[in-house]
């Protein structure tokens, strides 16, 4: 079993079972890690193998690109152990706990300069939303986190996409507008509705057909 790429201080994995590879890997000089999991592994958690790998390697990781399928608590535990991280891309549907805990840079990722959250627009997620699975309650926790991090002067680039909320107040809309005129900041939050979900389902199907 081999990584998709491994050059110098960067490793990228695209594996049916990335967890098994992390168990056997040691990379003290690693600076950048991309961990991509396919749909087979979507029902498994690579939280413990990833945490063990980082602890074993004792690497000063600065860049992490992660498809996350574990719990938010486990993700936060892992991030709290990587204070050197400067760029973090997460491809997952996170909840309010994540945004509330990430609000203070003094506790998690104090050096974070670039943050990207790309929620996976999978057909499963969209169908679940159409059947009653609720998104996060409102946009406040997301906006608070971004504003707090930016005001700290370390975070410089934000790209957050595809977040749906149950309630989007006029105040939140104004705050979003102010954020989105900031250079290198893009925060996309929309109010949940059946029409919105259906339009995204159709867009998803059309994109697959075009591909």
Verbal overview:
This protein has 211 residues and is α/β, with parallel strands linked by helices. The protein is 39% helix and 24% strand. It is built from eight helices and nine strands. The protein has helices at residues 18-24, 47-57, 72-80, 96-102, 123-130, 140-151, 170-180, 194-210; strands at residues 5-7, 10-15, 32-37, 63-67, 87-91, 114-118, 136-138, 157-167, 185-191. Strands 1, 2, 3, 4, 5, 6, 7, 8 and 9 form a nine-stranded mixed sheet that branches. This is F-box domain-containing protein.
Keywords:
about 210 residues; Leucine-rich repeat, LRR (right-handed beta-alpha superhelix); F-box domain-containing protein; alpha/beta; 9 strands; nine-stranded mixed β-sheet; single chain; disordered N terminus; 8 helices
End-to-end Cα distance, whole Å, is 29 Å
Radius of gyration: 18 Å
User: What sequence of helices (H) and strands (E) makes up the elements?
Assistant: EEHEHEHEHEHEHEHEH
Structural class given helices, strands, pairing? alpha/beta
Task: Output the CATH topology.
Answer: Leucine-rich repeat, LRR (right-handed beta-alpha superhelix)
Individual helix count = 8
Number of strands: 9
Name of the CATH first level: Alpha Beta
- Unreliable stretches, pLDDT < 50, 5 or more residues? 1-7, 39-45
Major sheet attributes: 9 strands, mixed
Total discrete domains? 1
Fraction of helical residues:
25-40%
The fraction of residues assigned to DSSP E strands is 15-25%
